[in-house]
Amino acid sequence: MRTIQLVVAGELMVFVALFGLVQITGCEAKVRLDDLGDTDTDTETDGDPLPPAWFLMDAARIGDTDEGCDLDGDDEVDNQFSVMATFMADEGYLDEHLNDSIATDIDTGEFLIVISLTDLNDMIDDASISTSLYDGKLEDQDAGVPDDLYSGHGTVLIEDAANAMIEDSTIASSHLSMLVGEITIALSINSNPIDITIYNALLSADIDPLPDEEMLEGGMTAGTICGSVDWSDLADGLALILELEQTEQMTLSAYLKSIADIDCEDTDCKQISIGLLFSAVSVIATDP
Fold first, then answer.
1. What single DSSP character describes residue 69?
2. pTM tops 0.90
3. What angle is formed at CA 84 by the lines to CA 257 and CA 223, rounded to 5 degrees?
4. What does the domain layout of the chain look like in residue ranges?
5. Within a 13 Å sphere around the CA of 200, how many CA atoms are in the beta-carbon half?
6. pLDDT in tens, 91-144
7. Could you tell me if 76 and 22 are in contact, meaning their C-beta atoms sit under 8 angstroms apart?
């Protein structure tokens, strides 16, 4: 089962101070982080309370090098993880590209990430909502993925407790935005799960089309999760999963360090930028 966890961390405010403006090219939007951080959570949005809206990711992929966010303010997209994924596939480290693995896991119900929106008054503009992420499970694991799971009115089971809740999310012109400290996603590498922790993360998406009055048949498009991955932790995880010999591990570690581009002191960088793109569809979420 794929997992995703969010933790509001201390690094977040450092990220806001250093990178006041983030350009998200994968979803054609520009988000000012300090504006998001200063959201007035006491502001009431006009309109009657709406029922919770549930969305299930139906597609996800590592963005190309020109898709993701400008994390360092130089007006250029930062997504070196894309370069790494292509390199590892081309060099034979991987049985298939990471994006192919993600697509397979979504098709087989191994990658089920559910996003809920609560405290809603308006799906177009709402200054203060709560966003939670859950692990999803199929109603009948033995029966496989039902035909209607990604139809906009499918059903998925969720864990009893949310992995995380972000109370200061906002919707502006049907665009969801939230600041996160860390997001840890389990990806498949050669059929083995590996945790990828994204630091100083920003999650955003367009709510399009809008769900109906029952919060069904809606969706999220142009979803983006941006941030950075510690190259050293990544090297250790890959070496374990791929069962690399010491020389092979040193070669891979040297490569990962060479493409690191975030959290730098002079030319020594600790992290690799990443941009993960996703879409989602409305879903009926129930307790197991």
1. B
2. no
3. 120
4. 4-286
5. 26
6. 999 999 999 999 999 999 989 999 999 999 999 999 989 888 788 889 888 888
7. no
